[in-house]
Amino acid sequence: xxxxSWEASRRHMLTMIGMACLIAWGxxxxxxxxxxHLIGAQRTxxxxxxxxxxxxxxxxxxxxxxxxxxxxxxxxxxxxxxxxRFCYPPCVLPLFAWCAYGSPRTAVRIWTVSLILAAGxxxxxxxxSRRQLHLWPVPVPFALASMLFSAPFLFALERGNxxxxxxxxxxxxxxxxxxxxxxxxxxxxxxxxVAAGMKVYPAFVLFGLLPLRRYRAxxxxxxxxxxxxxxxxxDLPQFWANVQDLIARQSPLALGxxxxxxxxxxxxxxxxxxxxxxxxxxxxxxxxxALGLLAPLVLLISYRIFHCPSPRSLLLPYLLWLAAAxxxxxxxxxxxxxxxxxxxxxxxxxxxxxxxxxLCMAFTLLWAQPIGVPIGPVLLLGFKYxxxxxxxxxxxxxAQEQAALGSKDGARAVDADExxxxxx
Length: 424
Hints:
The protein has helices at residues 3-35, 55-68, 92-95, 104-132, 140-148, 151-159, 166-176, 182-199, 215-229, 236-250, 252-255, 265-273, 286-306, 315-326, 340-348, 355-367, 377-415. By secondary structure, it is mainly alpha-helical. The protein has one domain (54-410). The longest helix has 39 residues, at 377-415. The chain is globular. The two termini are 42 Å apart.
């Protein structure tokens, strides 16, 4: 069997496996939607709420309806199933205004389908990035099944949390950044500003515009972000007070332990060194320690992106990776925030990466697959960080390859006495 036929056979086999997994997943979630809870949750990492799907979505559902009725969701009870306070920015309320036209169960089903479509769109675009980078073509059905069965996405789907809804905004921003014009910069800046307004932590992605030299897009995002902040500006102090109250009660540091489904470096940092010979390290502020762990990875990728003459094919994985890295910073970070990391992995990981990258990716299978296994939460946190680091190295390698490819193209153009192609 020739190498080409072997590669075709392997792709065909992965396609068949992916299709079978998608059918199984579809049957499973159809049953989950009918019974309105996650079937088999006890065998997964997910601490599912058995009364209904979409616990976090229902917070937005009832808050938006209370707001449309003229109520104050930041200071008044609004019907949350767990009597939680509203801890999302004011601009989120109009995004869920459509909830006024349906029952909770109908809205949960619509929202569930919307999140699945957003994830599918993200997978398709990630596979497209692989083709642009000339990587081994992973079949879309296999990549989609990997995403849908991943623990972060299943957790996001069970809770109805809207982190996955940020993915299309990052895709649109990456598409707008492929070429330079005022309209495209405004579009990219608007998408990133809306993403930051929805979840706050995507504001970290804005720093990625600096190595891309897209200063006008950054200015547009700041301008649009300022306009978004002006919406119900008077509620921002109470919103921040609600968030601080949530951190004081529910962060790992406040609870005194690390749960398997959290990955905040800032809040977990003091707990990592408690009752160890290196307890003095717990005196380092958690946010500073988290930045110290993330900064080398961000600088590595940003340096490679900055020196890449045409980073068009790297834009989407770059933005996805930055969003994933940002989720390690807040004092409360639940694993449904990590939906960006599997997509970035699909876009850039390749078999020609160093052995160390493949070893780190092997640890990914221990936490990103849905079935819960008896592993300590500290090890799980370390595995998640190693996955982030491995994808960072893969992305840096792809940037270096694109830079080398651009240099060769430029050299050939000079040898042929032709104009050198300019990076978009």
